[in-house]
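queue> pop job 88
queue> type: inverse folding (structure -> sequence)
queue> payload:
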């Protein structure tokens, strides 16, 4: 999944990200929703790709500029996905606080 498709997922709405459980109100728990969004953003895949490239680079004695550029791109992609997940988490937390204060 690339950055553009991540933005499309967010801008078009993510749809159901977790199945309902026995949380208060009958909906999904905060952690399930957060993990569902994390999965939709492909954060684990981006992290695994970055680690894979890093291990490959460290095992070589000579690294080409193209390999370093690829690594930089993957790290930046991981950064953007993490930042987006952080913003989603802040928004979810804020929404939960608003709901709790209105009760």
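queue> result:
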């Amino acid at each position: 999944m690339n950055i553009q498709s991540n933005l499309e997922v967010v801008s078009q709405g993510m749809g159901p990200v977790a199945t309902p459980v026995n949380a208060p109100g009958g909906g999904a728990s905060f952690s399930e929703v957060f993990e569902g969004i994390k999965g939709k953003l492909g954060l684990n895949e981006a992290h695994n790709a970055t680690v894979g490239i890093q291990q490959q680079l460290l095992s070589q004695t000579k690294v080409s500029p193209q390999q370093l550029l690829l690594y930089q791109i993957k790290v930046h992609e991981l950064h953007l996905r993490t930042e987006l997940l952080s913003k989603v988490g802040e928004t979810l937390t804020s929404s939960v606080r608003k709901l709790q204060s209105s009760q």
